[in-house]
Design a protein that fits this description.
- It contains 23 helices and 10 strands.
- It has 548 residues and is mostly helical.
- The protein has a two-stranded antiparallel sheet with strand order 1-3. Strands 2-4 form a two-stranded parallel sheet.
- A hairpin with a 5-residue loop joins strand 8 and strand 9.
């Protein structure tokens, strides 16, 4: 076996291993146990579910720029960048699960064959677009606006699978289960019961999850995959900012291609399966910043013209993209546009969306946006389906960042899982004692509940109801009841218990809104007012009047 064949086989094994690992960790980012009030028995996920985010170099560098510090969980990305200096842009071709998916969609029954495929793999001037996207994101990060998660391949893939693909698969699986159960065949049902149990124990969620604007995320994801039918690894060539970053670091690579141009017969076999469009053919300078180290060119070269080696002859190597000063300037100004236009808009502070309820432990909004990469780890791990991606609730700067929607799911009282999986510290690590509160610390508040008395059954319709008070998890309860006799429509006197909110005790968990029996619009609702993370977003009341 030649060296080229060996490297290609090793790359394929590596790709298979890492894409399986990615989805395994994604599937395991879910707590399938129960909850108790015993905060001394911590609830954790033991697997390293943040691994792919911890090695993400773009997430690390952009958070360093936006926060002036390297979050401890991102230290592994430094190792990856060091390896890039040694071996080139190997992450894209050997590790990145998003890159592997693009390769699969590109190579299975390709739309272009023969001379058309060769021409498409010669490279295109528009491959520099990803470098301008990188500049835009890094400039925005300078002004504490972290937008890299919109197009970073790891976060893009994780967010898409979590919020759009898996819920759709869960629905399809449930539909198929119902159909198979309709067959009165004990053997079919027994086999399917085993498949169903395994799938829901290890792959799909044990409950049907539904995410805010998941259809938009799903369409974007499918579009990214289908673009590979136009050109091999379209995303990697033209869009991926992480690939652009690694391309810049690969200019220092000690490992690269060396070509014997005088021996090349221009057969162009090297271009048939070139995944990076990095010009491996003879009498052309090799673009090291575009090469993803797939080694297909060395494998198929009949004249043995192409060799990958340490310390290659750099006479015919291009190490830098051909960037235009005008477009660099425009990209920089586009990066300025995001934070300044967003924060200059009324939606950021003066008309702050009251339903923008962040997860417990989230940093103050400006600091939060400087760290959150929209990875959806917190959404995946949330056991009640309470966390969802925003669209414009947080302005254009906060697209796809997490928001709690109580009507869909509430914040479990003793759960701190979202704070344990956040890879960048946008949701700081908290303890159960901080979440619940104790004699030493006040509980973390993510908002405050309010009543719409015009819709509340005891208040508006003289119908007894204490569902919200029964489910309130705080001690003492944030919802207290006043017993009163009121006239009913039939003329009789009915004794009801009218609920009130104690804002000193309410933590904004949203369980009252979730369980309110009014189906269309609940009579009790939660807003972000009073949240612990903000000194400004507070209820304008004299809190001393509520103290006993």
């Amino acid at each position: 076996m030649t060296k080229g064949n060996l490297l290609v086989y090793l790359r394929r094994i590596s790709q298979i291993f890492f894409i399986i690992l990615f989805f395994y960790l994604l599937f395991q980012t879910e707590y399938r146990g129960g909850f108790t009030k015993d905060i001394t028995n911590p609830i954790r996920i033991d697997l390293p579910v943040k691994f792919f985010f911890e090695i993400d170099p773009l997430a690390a560098i952009s958070t360093v720029i936006s926060t002036h510090s390297l979050y401890k969980d991102l230290i592994l990305s430094v190792v990856l960048l060091s390896a890039t200096i040694l071996f080139g842009r190997f992450f894209c071709g050997w590790i990145c699960p998003m890159g592997t998916l693009h390769q699969i969609f590109s190579t299975v029954s390709p739309s272009k064959k023969g001379i058309k495929r060769i021409e498409s793999n010669k490279g295109h001037p528009n491959q520099v677009i990803k470098y301008y996207i990188l500049i835009l994101f890094l400039v925005a990060a300078v002004f504490t606006s972290l937008q890299v998660g919109l197009l970073d391949p790891i976060t893009f893939l994780y967010r898409s699978v979590t919020t759009a693909i898996l819920p759709g698969l869960n629905l399809s699986f449930s539909f198929l289960t119902d159909k198979l159960n309709s067959f009165d065949n004990p053997y079919v049902q027994r086999i399917w019961d085993g498949i169903y149990s395994f799938t829901h124990d290890y792959i799909l969620s044990f409950i049907q999850l539904n995410f805010h604007f998941a259809w938009v995320i799903g369409i974007l994801f499918l579009t990214a995959l289908l673009l590979n039918r136009k050109e091999t690894r379209f995303w990697c060539r033209y869009i991926c900012p992480t690939g652009a970053l690694l391309g810049l670091f690969s200019r220092f690579s000690l490992f690269g291609m060396e070509k014997a141009h005088d021996k090349c017969t221009d057969c162009n076999k090297c271009l048939l399966d070139c995944q990076g469009a990095d010009s491996p053919q003879g009498r052309v300078d090799w673009k090291s910043h575009e090469c993803i180290m797939c080694f297909n060119c060395e494998k198929v070269c009949p004249e043995d013209v192409i060799k990958f080696k340490f310390f290659p002859n750099r006479a015919s190597i291009l190490t830098e993209p051909n960037l235009k000063r005008r477009w660099i300037t425009l990209s920089g100004f586009a990066g300025l546009f995001i934070p300044f236009f967003s924060r200059g808009s009324a939606e950021f502070k003066t008309n702050f969306n009251p339903k923008l309820i962040r997860p417990p432990g989230a940093l103050e909004e400006t600091e939060f946006l400087a760290r959150c990469i929209r990875c959806a780890e917190c959404m995946k791990v949330c056991p009640t389906n309470a966390l969802h991606p925003t669209l414009l609730e947080a302005g254009i700067e906060g697209i796809w960042s997490p928001i709690l929607i109580p009507r869909i799911g509430y914040c479990e009282h003793t759960c701190i899982l979202c704070s344990t999986v956040c890879p960048t510290g946008a949701i700081r690590s908290i303890t159960e004692e901080e979440k619940v509160g104790s004699d030493k610390v006040k509980p973390i508040k993510i908002g405050t509940a309010f009543y719409d008395r015009g819709r509340c059954l005891p208040w508006a319709m003289a119908i007894p109801c204490i569902v919200c008070e029964e489910h309130c998890p705080t001690t003492p309860k944030a919802i207290w009841l006043e017993e009163i006799d009121v006239p009913a429509p039939n003329g009789k006197i009915v004794r009801v218990k009218r609920p009130y909110i104690n804002p000193e005790v309410c933590i904004g968990c949203g369980i009252c809104e979730k369980v309110c029996p009014l189906q269309d619009q609940p009579a009790v609702y939660v807003t972000s007012i009073g949240e612990s993370r903000s000194k400004e977003n507070q209820v304008l009341l004299d809190s001393s009047r509520y103290k006993q």
